[in-house]
């Protein structure tokens, strides 16, 4: 029956909860799928060298504050155009649709299938279904020149059903800031299937880490069979800059130091002389002509406009004026941060809700079937009917929260109550997607609830 | 349409060198219209769609490049400012090699202007990032709406990961700046004399004005619109809205 395969996956998941070092209820099913995937398709290669690279590559996700361990400090390189663009074909929504259709049982995390920012390396590994096929064909010119992506091998079909595991892993990486320290492990685990499967693609090696940063993976010059164009962008960090300054000072100061010398001293993998050169130039300008470097973007302001605002401010004296300026700037910064966080949460939630919605459809069918399998025959029908309304109630309460615009606290309690009701009616490990839905919901409820979007 | 106007305003009021780095919202909107008016699965449909996607990607590359460039500049300047302040403290500060209150104050005053402007420029970059993101989100929404496509959700996920939107480092630098300013220029410092008036340069003015403009624009954009839905941001409530409005100069004030 339909229920069977899904149940088996679930059980195996329950047994190996900590396989990937993933924590949190929401992700408890991930190991199940990934392990399943790995068992089916892979022999795990030696982890040592790969993990170092993984770390390197996942660093960019937490970019500024972390320093990769592989080399002292590593900046982050970005392939400027194709890196991003090549992912576009995978960012269309239909892959997730397809996934959902193929896998009637979708348990695990809410991030599961929604958006698939698949890494470049998996071009050949995963289906590249798109909304309209002409998307791909017409755009392959401007996008990365990965030759093989249009025809994917048959084993990719098998992967389709397990894609969501990968996707959910990746989405975990993307979405949940709280699991940042788990990313290296997750990325590592995720990346491996890609490595093995897409082995024929040379660029796989360094494109793997997490899909979220494929446009800024650390480019390893030694294996730079990148799809990227000639000048990968370097993303500087304060730590990297420190190392730079160190090197410059050792070489006798910014005037005397040469790009080549600095490059050699820094010993940073992936750093090219081109990067050092331009950075050195900026550095010199900043040191010796601070006025001009600061004012460079503003020289062309018309005097009249500025004198008029000068008028306004000079009534106060410069200190006061600067203080005021600071206040406004601080305010703007604050608001921008808040806005940005909101935007992130909104998108997160959008994905969860969509997943939930999709789940509900397939889940309800599943429920009826599975509850008939699990429960005693006498209570069979009553359970089935109990669960569906409970789930509906959940959705309804979500919508109520949205419509009344209640704050997260209320949403929290309502949603959790509903989850508990559902949970109480089911047996432990076999609760399957409902349990997952619960945890999704609890996660959701911590954010401002909004109306689910049905047209997507 | 409202956003388009707001964006235009922002671009007009922004630092001149930045003007061509913003989202070409109008252009993208035109393409969406073109796509939706073309018969589905026709050649022109395909072409328009391809161009749309191509442009989108190009825009993002543009943002990334510009953003990372500025970010690099900021990293360098931040360090320089920190060092400069340290030098002043170490030389003319109370525990310095040649303590001199007058010199200290003098030098610090110069630095102060720089650091405040630096702070402002960084915040403006954050604003740049955000307004472009907002524009992208809106145009994607339009696309989905007009063409019935499902591009928005996955595409925006990608965008969220782009360098130009991951502004953590800049944010960190901004906070460090604020801390430095609070430390070095404590609130109880007495007001400088009016002679310092001339020291307020054009640079400072530009940034201040831009910041004000940016704040107000943000407020405007977030006012509830007809298409307000769960993907929209709530309205922005600025407590000192009136005060900020008074700083907003859209036309030059004639000087008597």
Give the H and E element order of chain A.
HHHEHHHHHHHEHHHHHHHHH
Integer average pLDDT of chain A: 54
Rg of chain A: 26 Å
Distance between the termini of chain A: 29 Å
Q: Provide the helix percentage of chain B.
A: 55-70%
Characterization of the model:
- The complex is a heterodimer of chains A (456) and B (256).
- Chain A is mainly alpha-helical and 456 residues long.
- Chain A has helices at residues 3-15, 30-41, 47-58, 82-85, 88-91, 94-102, 133-139, 155-175, 183-197, 204-207, 238-250, 259-266, 273-288, 290-295, 303-314, 318-374, 380-404, 408-424, 432-445, and strands at 76-78, 233-235.
- In chain A, strands 1-2 form a two-stranded antiparallel sheet.
- In chain A, helix 1 (3-15) packs across helix 2 (30-41), helix 8 (155-175) packs antiparallel against helix 9 and helix 12 (259-266) packs across helix 13.
- Residues 1-75, 78-229, 293-308 and 378-456 of chain A have low confidence and may be disordered.
- Chain B has one domain (1-221).
- Chain B is elongated, with a radius of gyration of 22 Å.
- Chain B contains eight helices and no strands.
- The chains are: A mainly alpha (456), B mainly alpha (256).
- Chains A and B meet through helix 5, helix 6, helix 7, strand 2 and helix 11 of A and helix 3, helix 4, helix 5, helix 6 and helix 7 of B.
- Chain B: This is SPX domain-containing protein 3 isoform X2.
- Chain B: Residues 1-157 form the SPX domain.
């Amino acid at each position: 029956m339909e229920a069977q395969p899904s149940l088996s996956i679930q059980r195996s998941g329950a047994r190996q909860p900590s396989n990937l070092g993933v924590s949190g209820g929401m992700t408890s099913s991930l190991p199940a799928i990934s392990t399943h995937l790995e068992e089916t398709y892979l022999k795990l290669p030696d982890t040592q060298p790969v993990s170092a690279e993984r770390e390197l590559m996942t660093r960019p996700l937490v970019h500024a504050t972390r320093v990769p361990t592989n080399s002292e400090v590593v900046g982050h390189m970005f392939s400027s155009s194709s890196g991003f663009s090549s992912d576009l074909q995978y960012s269309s929504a239909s892959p997730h649709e397809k996934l959902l259709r193929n896998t009637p049982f979708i348990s695990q995390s809410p991030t599961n299938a929604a958006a698939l920012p698949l890494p470049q390396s998996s071009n050949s590994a995963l289906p590249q279904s798109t909304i309209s096929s002409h998307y791909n064909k017409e755009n392959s010119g401007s996008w990365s020149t990965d030759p093989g992506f249009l025809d994917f091998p048959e084993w990719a079909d098998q992967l389709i059903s397990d894609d969501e595991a990968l996707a959910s892993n990746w989405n975990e990486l993307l979405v949940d800031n709280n699991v940042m320290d788990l990313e290296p492990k997750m990325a590592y685990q995720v990346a491996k299937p890609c490595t093995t499967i897409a082995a024929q693609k040379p660029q796989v090696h360094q494109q793997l880490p997490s899909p979220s940063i494929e446009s800024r993976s650390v480019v390893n010059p030694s294996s730079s069979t990148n799809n990227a164009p000639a000048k990968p962008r370097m993303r500087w960090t304060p730590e990297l800059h420190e190392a730079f300054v160190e090197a410059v000072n050792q070489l006798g100061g910014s005037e005397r130091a040469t790009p080549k010398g600095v490059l050699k001293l820094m010993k940073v993998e992936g750093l090219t002389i081109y990067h050092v050169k331009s950075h050195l130039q900026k550095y010199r300008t900043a040191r010796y002509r601070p006025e001009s470097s600061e004012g460079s973007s503003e020289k062309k302001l018309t005097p009249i406009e500025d004198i008029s605002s000068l008028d306004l401010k000079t009534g106060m004296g410069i200190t006061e004026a600067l203080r005021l300026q600071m206040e406004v700037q601080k305010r703007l910064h604050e608001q921008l941060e808040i806005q940005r966080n909101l935007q992130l949460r909104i998108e997160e939630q959008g994905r969860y809700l969509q997943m939930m919605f999709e789940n509900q459809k397939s889940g309800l069918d599943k429920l009826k079937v599975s509850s008939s399998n699990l429960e005693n025959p006498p209570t069979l029908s009553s359970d089935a009917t109990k669960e569906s309304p409970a789930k509906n109630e959940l959705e309804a309460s979500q919508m109520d929260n949205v419509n009344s615009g209640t704050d997260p606290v209320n949403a929290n309690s309502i949603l959790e109550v509903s989850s508990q009701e559902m949970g109480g009616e089911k047996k432990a490990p076999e609760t399957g997607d409902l349990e997952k839905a619960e945890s999704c919901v609890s996660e959701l409820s911590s954010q401002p609830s909004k109306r689910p979007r049905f047209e997507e | 349409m409202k956003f388009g106007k707001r964006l235009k305003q922002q671009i007009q009021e922004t630092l001149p060198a930045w003007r061509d780095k913003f989202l070409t919202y109008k252009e993208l909107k035109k393409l969406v219209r073109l796509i939706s008016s073309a018969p589905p699965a026709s050649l022109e449909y395909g072409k328009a769609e391809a161009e749309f996607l191509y442009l989108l990607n190009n825009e993002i590359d543009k943002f990334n490049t510009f953003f990372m460039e500025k970010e690099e500049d900021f990293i360098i300047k931040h360090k320089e400012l920190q060092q400069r302040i340290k030098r002043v403290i170490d030389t003319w500060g109370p525990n310095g090699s040649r303590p001199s209150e007058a010199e200290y104050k003098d030098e610090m005053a110069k630095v102060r202007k720089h650091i405040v402007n630096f702070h402002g420029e960084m915040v403006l970059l954050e604003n740049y990032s955000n307004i472009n993101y907002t524009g992208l989100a809106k145009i994607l929404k339009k696309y989905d709406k007009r063409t019935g496509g499902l591009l928005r959700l996955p595409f925006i996920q990608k965008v969220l990961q782009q360098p130009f939107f991951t502004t953590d480092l800049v944010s960190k630098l901004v906070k460090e700046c604020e801390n430095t300013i609070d430390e070095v220029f404590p609130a109880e410092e007495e007001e400088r004399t009016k002679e310092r008036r001339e020291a307020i340069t054009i640079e400072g003015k530009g940034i201040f004005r831009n910041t004000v403009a940016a704040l107000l624009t943000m407020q405007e954009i977030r006012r509830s619109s007809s298409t307000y839905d769960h993907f929209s941001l709530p309205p922005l409530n600025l407590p000192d809205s009136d005060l900020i409005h008074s700083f907003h100069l859209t036309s030059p004030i004639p000087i008597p």
